[in-house]
Amino acid sequence: MTFRVAISGLNSAQTDLSVTANNIANSSTTGFKQSRAQFAELFSVSSTGVSSLASGNGVRVTDIAQQFKQGNIDFTDNSLDLAISGNGFFVLSDNGATAYSRAGAFRVDRSGYVVNAANQRLQIFPPNSQGGFNTGALSDLRLTSGESPPAATANVRVVANLPGNARPPQLSPFDPSDPDTYNHSTAMTVYDSLGSAHTATFYFAKSSTANAWEQRMYVDGSAVGEPQTLLYSASGTLTSPENGSVVFPPFDPGNGAAPLNVAVDLGASTQYGSAFSVSAITQDGYTTGRLIGIDTESSGVVQARFTNGRSIALGMVALAQFPNPNGLQQLGDTTWAETFASGQALRGSAGSAGLGLIQSGALEASNVDVTEQLVGMITAQRNFQANAKMISTADAITQSIINIR
User: Fold this and answer.
1) Fewer CB within 10 Å, N side or C side of the chain?
2) What domains does the chain contain, in order, with CATH numbers?
3) Residues 210-269: pLDDT tens digits?
4) What distance in Å separates the CA atoms of residue 212 and residue 229, rounded to the nearest whole number?
5) Which residues, 6+ apart, have CB-to-CB distance to 359 below 8 Å?
6) What does DSSP say about strands 335-337 and 97-101: parallel, antiparallel, or unpaired?
């Protein structure tokens, strides 16, 4: 009996050492969660429920429990590296099978899919037509390889001050090449439906009528429609047109693009003082753009950035949590699978329903404390040696008994 009890102690100490060795070996593994060996005593129990041997039958390993406490967040220079600060797991697709992981070292494969080292694809909630995300469905995160399409300029906003003491131009008729035929001008870039850039110039000429100005628009040196009249009040605010919007007729850029239809918002323009100034001039068109980067917000929204200044939401990173994470089945490569013991996965977005936030350009380090593991290794080693000594002692006693004559 003593031999059997001591052997159970040896086996348990060996298991403890193996668990400790695995923890130490993975102390630098991204997203790794350390394990802990748990033990329970053994007793022989009769049919009446009474222990048949008060001294016990040894020890057994009841569980190797994973410890899902948070690991340190290490920052990197890779925008595709993601870390979860708080609860939750990344949802991965492994050829259709679902896996879960805390390791967020992702890259792009040759087809544009965001994958980990095991080629498991990161899952997202896809965008919907209302500008949100369909949290009831999952799809692979794939980076677009095409260009961002252009958009023609439709609205221009000019915030300018026209001098109240201005006099009408010295010469007439108007000639854009002769600054003596107008008072002031400003220019900006506008875009047609093909994304081609054009220079739009706005000319302002003081009218002989009090508080009245004429505005002209030229695109690439060609006039767009007739002059438009601007009227200001005695206090310097725009009174006509009433909504502050000057609409010019369509202009054909002559390159096969659709005609430009531009409305110029001058509602914030004024007629104060004696100095001409332009404090803001904006337009809503843009040219084509190439993908230059990926940004992931703390909520998990993945934005693709393009050279034309546009950002497109590709989706929202899906996270999952479980009623009992310790019940997850380890698959290797720091991934887990759902089991009956873990409970069903509860999916959601970062920062909601108890899920953690996502940190872009960072990785979660292993939660192994090497110092703690080394202390545990010494303890397990002592336990192993003590049980081995017990076997040696029992063997000596047995030999003594055998040698009695």
Assistant:
1) C
2) 2-69+367-402 (no CATH), 76-127+296-305+314-364 (no CATH), 155-283 (2.60.98.20)
3) 999 999 999 999 999 999 999 999 999 999 998 999 999 999 999 999 999 999 999 999
4) 7
5) 73, 82, 83, 84, 85, 298
6) antiparallel
